[in-house]
Write a structure and sequence with these properties.
Shape: globular
Number of domains: 3
Distance between the termini: 68 Å
Structural class: alpha+beta
Number of strands: 12
Length: 544
C-alpha cells in the first residue's frame, strides 16, 4: 500500500489515533490485524521467565566457553593489576576500562552488548569506563551480505528480490545483536531492515551461563564502585538482553510506546511504523525516518529548531510514559534518536524497553511527587516500594542512618576527605540494608542521566530549578486528577511544590534566583576534583 493509498482523501493518517507516527504514512498500522502479534503476551512472559534459568548458579563451569572467557578477562585484570593499579585513580580506571573493552571485543556479541549498555550509563558508571566502552557502539564488524540475504529469505519465506526493489549491501549500522540495512520495497516504500546476526541467540544464552558462573568470583576484585556486585549486574543484563533476541517483541515495544505518546497527546516524538507483515524473530522491517543526528546542535539551530523546546518535550514524554503508563524507551542515547526538521524527535531501537508493573509505577510516581514536595520520608518509602530496598526495611532507621533528617549541606563546601567519608558511610549503610538496583529502575535512572547530559549539549543555559517546576506543573495541570486518584489523594490537596527543597536536592543551601545547567556542571566538576584529589592522597598514604 503506497502513501497515497493509505491516506486517501484524509489529511492525516488514520493510525495517528493509535500511535505517534510520522504524518507521511508508508502504510497504516492496525494492531488488531498484525499477524506477527499473535501470542505476543505469552511470548514476552516466556522470554522473561527464561532469564533466571539462564543465570542460575552452577557448581561446574558451563562448557569450554568459560575457559576462553576466564582467560581473556583474567589477562585483562592481571595486566591492570601489574601495570595500572598503582598509577592514580584516573589512570587505574582508564587502564582497567581499556583492557576490559579489548577483552569484550574479542569475546564477541554478548560482551559487546554488555559494554554498549554500560557505555550509556553516564553517572551510573565511572566516566573512564563509559568513554572507553562507547567505542563498542561503532566498532562491530558487519556480517557478510550473503548471510544477511539468507536470514532475510529464511525468515520472510521469499527471495529478496521479490520483496525489495533495492537492498543496500552495506549496513547503515552494525551492532552486537543485529545490523540495519536501508532498502526500498517493491511497492515503493523506503524502509530499514534490521537483521539479527546468525549465531547471536545461541551465543548469548551460552555466555549468560558463563557470566553467572564467573561473576561471583569477581566480587571485591573489580575496583569500580558501580560494578561492586557483578552477579546482580549479570542478572540485570540477562533480563534485558533475552528480550532483544526476538524482534517481534521489539516491534510490539514500538507500538506500545507510540500508543502511550498518542494517548497523552504528545506529538513532539515519533516512532517508526513496523511493517504489517515483514516482522519475524530475526527480521524487522520498519518505516525509514530521517533527521539531524542528536549531537548536531549547530545544524538544528541553523534550521530554526529550538533545541531547548525539543529537550523539554522529550523529558515530559519520557516521564509521562514511565509515570502514567509504566512504559518507556529503555536505552536512550545519541545513536537511538535524532531530531527531524520539524523539531520532532524520532525514537529508534526499541530492543530495550522499560515496563513497570502497576506497583512499581505507583511507587515511582510517589517518588517524583514526594521529591517535588521535598518529602524525605515519602521518597524513602517509594524507593523501598520500587524494590531498591527490602520490603521489611525500617524507613525511619534509613532516614536516621543516612542523615536525611539533618539540614542539607552544600557538598561544594566540603573537603575531599569529608566527601569521601560521606560517600563511604552512605554506601556502607545502603549495602547493610540490602539495597539493590532493579532492572526497570536502572533503565529509568540511566535514561534520566542521559537526558541530564543532553541538557548540557542542547540547552546549557537552561534554568534547572525553573525547568523542574515547569515539568511538575505540567503534570499537575494535565494529569493532576489521574495522579491524585492513583496515589490516593484528594485532587484539592495535592502536595505543593517546594522550590527550596528542589534547591536542596542540588545541594544548594542558599536562596538563588536560578541554577543553569552550566553552573550545575561546574559544581559537579568541583566535587569530582576534590574526590579524585582525596583518592590520590589516600593511595599515597597507604603506599599504593
Amino acid at each position: 500500500m503506497t502513501d497515497a493509498d493509505a491516506l486517501g482523501a484524509s489529511e492525516e493518517p488514520a493510525d495517528l489515533e493509535v500511535g505517534a507516527f510520522s504524518s507521511s504514512a508508508p502504510w497504516l498500522v492496525d494492531p488488531a490485524a498484525l499477524a506477527w502479534r499473535d501470542g505476543i503476551d505469552e511470548l514476552r512472559a516466556a522470554t522473561r521467565a527464561e532469564a533466571p534459568h539462564l543465570t542460575r548458579r552452577r557448581r561446574l563451569p558451563p562448557g569450554v566457553r568459560v575457559v576462553r572467557v576466564a582467560s581473556l578477562l583474567g589477562r585483562a585484570l592481571l595486566g591492570w593489576y601489574g601495570l595500572d593499579r598503582r598509577r592514580g585513580t584516573h589512570v587505574s580506571r582508564a587502564g582497567l576500562s581499556l583492557r576490559l573493552r579489548r577483552a569484550f571485543e574479542r569475546l564477541g556479541p554478548t560482551y559487546i552488548k554488555l559494554g554498549q549498555i554500560l557505555s550509556s550509563g553516564e553517572g551510573l558508571f565511572p566516566e573512564e569506563l563509559v568513554s572507553e566502552f562507547r567505542l563498542l557502539r561503532d566498532q562491530v564488524p558487519a556480517e557478510p551480505f550473503d548471510i544477511v540475504r539468507r536470514i532475510v529469505e529464511e525468515d520472510l519465506g521469499r527471495p529478496l528480490d521479490e520483496l525489495f526493489a533495492v537492498f543496500e549491501l552495506a549496513p547503515v549500522a552494525a551492532a552486537s545483536i543485529a545490523q540495519v540495512h536501508a532498502a526500498r520495497l517493491v511497492t515503493g516504500e523506503q524502509v530499514v531492515v534490521k537483521v539479527q546476526r546468525p549465531t547471536v541467540a545461541r551465543l548469548v544464552r551460552l555466555d549468560l551461563g558463563v557470566m553467572s558462573w564467573i561473576a561471583p568470583l569477581l566480587v571485591g576484585r573489580i575496583p569500580v564502585a558501580a560494578l561492586a556486585n557483578p552477579p546482580a549486574l549479570v542478572e540485570l543484563f540477562a533480563e534485558t538482553i533475552v528480550e532483544e533476541l526476538d524482534f517481534r517483541l521489539e516491534a510490539q515495544n514500538m507500538l506500545d510506546v507510540a500508543r502511550v505518546l498518542a494517548e497523552t497527546g504528545q506529538r513532539a516524538l515519533v516512532v517508526p511504523r513496523p511493517h504489517p507483515e515483514l516482522v519475524t524473530r530475526r527480521v524487522l522491517v520498519m518505516e525509514r525516518l530521517d533527521g539531524f543526528a542528536w549531537g548536531n546542535v549547530e545544524a538544528m539551530h541553523n534550521a530554526g529548531v529550538d533545541t531547548a523546546a525539543v529537550l523539554h518535550a522529550a523529558m515530559i514524554a519520557f516521564l509521562e510514559g514511565a509515570l502514567l503508563y509504566g512504559v518507556f524507551h529503555g536505552d536512550l542515547h545519541g545513536g537511538n534518536l535524532f531530531v527531524r526538521h520539524d523539531g520532532r524527535v524520532a525514537l529508534l531501537d526499541f530492543g530495550i524497553t522499560g515496563r513497570l508493573d502497576d506497583a512499581q509505577r505507583l511507587a515511582l510516581l510517589r517518588l517524583i511527587i514526594a521529591g517535588s514536595a521535598y518529602d524525605i520520608r515519602g521518597q524513602v518509602e517509594a524507593i523501598r516500594d520500587l524494590g531498591a530496598l527490602p520490603a521489611s526495611t525500617d524507613v525511619d532507621a534509613v532516614i536516621r542512618d543516612l542523615g536525611l533528617d539533618k539540614p542539607p549541606v552544600d557538598p561544594t563546601t566540603l573537603s575531599g576527605e569529608e566527601l569521601t567519608s560521606q560517600i563511604r558511610d552512605v554506601t556502607k549503610a545502603l549495602l547493610g540494608y540490602g539495597a539493590r538496583m532493579p532492572k526497570e529502575l536502572m533503565l529509568y535512572v540511566k535514561d534520566m542521566l542521559f537526558l541530564d547530559g543532553a541538557i548540557g549539549l542542547m540547552a546549557p543555559e537552561m534554568d534547572m530549578i525553573s525547568e523542574i517546576v515547569a515539568i511538575v506543573m505540567h503534570f499537575y495541570v494535565h494529569h493532576g486528577e489521574r495522579i491524585a486518584r492513583d496515589i490516593g489523594l484528594d485532587p484539592a490537596f495535592m502536595p505543593a511544590i517546594d522550590v527550596e527543597g528542589i534547591r536542596a536536592s542540588f545541594g544548594i543551601t542558599e536562596p538563588v534566583e536560578g541554577l543553569t545547567y552550566r553552573e550545575l556542571q561546574e559544581r559537579r566538576e568541583l566535587i569530582r576534583r576534590r574526590l579524585e584529589h582525596q583518592a590520590g592522597r589516600a593511595k599515597r598514604r597507604h603506599g599504593n
